Amino acid sequence: MHKYGTILLLIAFCLAGIAHGSGNNGIPEITYERYSDRVLIVKTGEQYFDKIVAIAAKKGIVVIDTGIAPSLAAEYRKIIEREFGRKDFAYIINTHYHYDHSNGNQAFADAKIIGHERSVEGMKEYANDIKNIIARGRDRVAQWKDQYKTMEPASEQAKRLLDTITSYDFMCDDVEKNFISTPPTITFNDRMKLNLGDITLDLVYFGEGRHTGDDILIHCPEEKILFTGDLFYYASIIISPRLPFDAERWISSLNYVLQDPSTVKYVSDMHNKPMTGTFITLFRDYLVDMQKNLAEAKKQNLLFDEVQKQFAYDKKFTYLEKSEIPIEQLKQQHEVNLRFMWYHLKGVQSAATQLDNEITASGITAALKKFKQMRSAPPDTFYYDERELNLLAYRLLGANQISEALEVFKINVELYPQSWNVYDSLAEAYMKNDQNDLAIKNYRKSLELNPDNTNAVNYLKQLEK
Known about the structure:
This protein is α/β, with parallel strands linked by helices. The chain is about 50% helix and about 15% strand. It contains 18 helices and 16 strands. The strands form 3 sheets. The chain has an 8-stranded mixed beta sheet. Strands 9-10-11-12-13-14 form a 6-stranded mixed beta sheet. It has a two-stranded parallel sheet with strand order 15-16. Helix 7 runs antiparallel to helix 8 and helix 17 packs antiparallel against helix 18. The protein is globular, with a radius of gyration of 23 Å.
């Protein structure tokens, strides 16, 4: 089943081919490709995408998300019109309110714009804070450019960073000059169905705690596509919730779109590689199994050490290997999920999740203040997990929020001073921030705690030349 789905995707894209748009007026290069006669994918970037998807139906063209910048969206629109030979845009659907999914709405203002009811407020708050957002964006781009100078240009990480720099650099200038707030004109709370003549689109609210509070799934059964916005990431089963965590709603939403699994072959997020329906089905099954098993463990009053043994990856969850994620990666991700879901069920809060929420809402300074308060809270109010904190820090590092990542890595060193890995991770962040003296210091400390750490040995050879 999984192999068939993968082959189907490859055939579809090979038949469609890939064409290139030409950049002008500073607009990043645009590429576009056909998934089918009715579905067109338009994007910029090789490793990190700014992407929208257009569907040509009998009752009009539907566009899923509108990208990071108004002028870029206007170019996307020209390509869609040329490729489909028509201009009857019926609907725009925003998967959530974030600016990299909705800044281009104004380029399609003649269409009806659909989003979850919470998206409207999110977009209004963004518009009211636009000057500060642009200023922070420019600061971040400057940091990324300095970081890029220290990287090997041919590396995948450097290519991804360059894609990010290009998109955000253009976005800051374009939004400052051209942005007009254009929130959804049609909203829904739970589910919505669009009948477009030859195809239907099912819009399903996913639930709180995954990414934002307004994330939706969009299912097109006739084309066997599921659009997930930023809800899922290639090669990751990490639950990574932001509280409140509504697992029952997540399961209900996935059950709804997977009523007939054969209608979900291709899963499109809006920034990364596509996934197959097999991956989403496995994630749903895993979430169901975790909920059921841990609820039973709670009834038995098991301790967490017992839970770890009873619900180890090798005993219960080897079916996840069908996802084609490397086994060691699956084991590590499962351990993080197990700890989070168990303590959440017991009413003990994740320190990493609290920090993540505070960084997102108020920035790193407020998050550090929050951390001090958490440390003085009564026992069993929060739990601290080295892997969760490391994953949070690396996610921030991957998003090029280097100063935020450094502070979280420092917290991990404070909490786990005998762990060689926390020093190794902190050293990596310092190196990416061009603070080589501090990188050397922490790689040496990591090597002192673990003489077999070849990663530290290799980087020290480079840094001490």
